[in-house]
Specification:
The structure is a homodimer of 261-residue chains. Chain A has 261 residues and is α/β, with parallel strands linked by helices. Helices cover 43% and strands 13% of the residues of chain A. Chain A has a 7-stranded mixed sheet with strand order 3-4-2-5-1-6-7, sandwiched between helices. The complex binds adenosine-5'-triphosphate (2 copies) and magnesium ion (2 copies).
Chain lengths: 261, 261
């Protein structure tokens, strides 16, 4: 089972869109996919028609319990998505209180990793969506994954925020053993070749992070918004769109890289 | 002095862009404007060329001090922007730790309001940018302002998050006296009339919030990104752009509404 997290401390860069689109493409080629929504705002959960304000069981349960997390406890959280090869562990808005609750309690950073270990044989890929804030939920996302996807808007201010994200990754890696270092891929999003800001920031990203930047660039594509109306993964909604094609190229390069490791 | 905050728990909806563009338009007609960056990610601070990781003095100081906040203490925080009628109280990344520090300490929700009272005669308008998370910094933004601007992307998922924001506003209003109730304006952003998601969610916004929605709709305009490269307010960078025109219409209706109150 491969675990990929999608994170960036900047808001609105395409994290949830990356999770949903990559999940749809993996499911189309036959993989069984689990999605985990670690954002208390619950965009991924809402995307599939569930209400983060009303859900009784969610990721929150993984933090609320003092007992050991067991397989039944995790399976109780699973929800269907609109695709039969994709399941979801949803978010609830109650998770916004976890930051405060986590203070003083040791080891809250591994709850998600422990839960995923319980369903290791049921899924081929796990994709974790995270909130745009560095806190206990993002730390769980970084601790649970083997590879990190970092969507970055192709605009000037985004580069500044990325430096901070890269520093956070090196911090996490200092605590990991040599064989388990967290690798990451930078995904340029909202690319628009007509805008000088987009063109020059993409060049700057290649200069600064030549080994981590993905060759697949995600263009601005308003069709992404239509997919969320009906809760369909973008590749099912419109498999010919430019956005979906660019994510398919991204996925091919990620799978290629994985083979070589 | 009028204090307007810009807030939405959803990331990437155009909060910082709204602050910078409205500030530029107010400054152009002669008003003296103070900007306050309450987002630990510091997009507004970076926009004007300052580094939120390196700054010694920032909004953080308003929370760190046990003493009463006085005028000199606030004036020490003021920085220049690229416009001579706009000043800035910057953010620093250290503010990300304030959530944890604020636990158990009473009355941390009014630090910004107290600081602004110290410079009441120096500015005509104060615009407060906030992070995409409901926490002590957003509570300060809501407590310090008389009117709230809520940018909302014209897409399906955004409507769900808006309900939550409106509930937060009613919660805040329960603690305010009748004459000081917080009013708010919903600003539809990233509007694209070619996308079904955009058109139908704008109609839904008008149905659900007929009294709070602004008639001015902000279109998708990639020129906003170019402005941030040079740290110029959008109306100085390109006063003829569609985006700037739509914000000018918004500002006219906000000033109109204010006259009537
Ligand atoms: N390449 C793209 N082109 C155009 N629109 C896009 C693209 N990617 C995402 N979007 C749209 O932009 C908005 C923000 O994307 P998304 O919600 O995925 O970002 P996010 O990083 O998850 O935000 P948050 O920080 O709030 O979690 C959504 O309306 C989405 O449909
Ligand atoms: N109307 C618009 N059309 C096109 N691009 C826009 C528009 N408004 C903002 N943008 C761009 O979208 C990105 C996100 O905007 P912005 O940073 O203002 O959002 P935000 O709500 O402040 O995000 P955060 O939640 O991270 O604070 C920026 O790159 C900005 O230049
Ligand atoms: Mg998201
Ligand atoms: Mg912002």
């Amino acid at each position: 089972m491969h675990v990929w997290s999608v994170a960036n401390q900047k808001g609105g860069v395409g994290k949830t869109t990356t999770v949903v689109t990559v999940a749809g493409l993996l499911a189309e080629v036959g993989y069984r996919v689990l999605l985990v929504d670690l954002d208390p705002h619950g965009s991924l959960t809402s995307y599939f028609g569930y209400d983060p304000d009303e859900l009784e069981h969610s990721v929150y349960d993984l933090f609320a319990t003092k007992h050991k997390i067991n397989r039944e406890g995790v399976e109780r959280l699973l929800l269907n998505s609109s695709h039969d090869r994709i399941d979801l562990i949803p978010a609830s808005t109650a998770m916004a209180t976890l930051e405060r609750k986590a203070i003083g309690e040791e080891g809250m950073g591994l709850q998600v990793a422990k839960a995923l270990a319980q369903v290791r044989d049921s899924y081929d890929y796990v994709l974790i969506d995270s909130p745009p804030v560095l806190g206990v939920l993002m730390v769980n996302a970084l601790a649970a994954c083997q590879h990190l996807l970092v969507p970055v808007q192709t605009e000037f201010l985004a580069l500044k925020g990325l430096e901070r994200m890269v520093r956070t990754i090196s911090m996490i890696n200092r605590a990991r053993s040599k064989s388990k270092k967290l690798s990451f891929t930078i995904i340029p999003t909202f690319y628009d070749r007509r805008t000088q800001a987009s063109v020059s920031s993409l060049r700057e990203l290649h200069n600064k992070y030549p080994n981590e930047i993905s060759n697949a660039v995600i263009p601005v594509d308003t069709k992404f918004r239509n997919a969320s109306i009906r809760g369909l993964v973008p590749s099912v909604m419109d498999s010919s769109s430019r956005g979906v094609h660019s994510y398919a190229r991204l996925l091919r390069s990620l799978l290629e890289r994985q083979k070589q490791e």
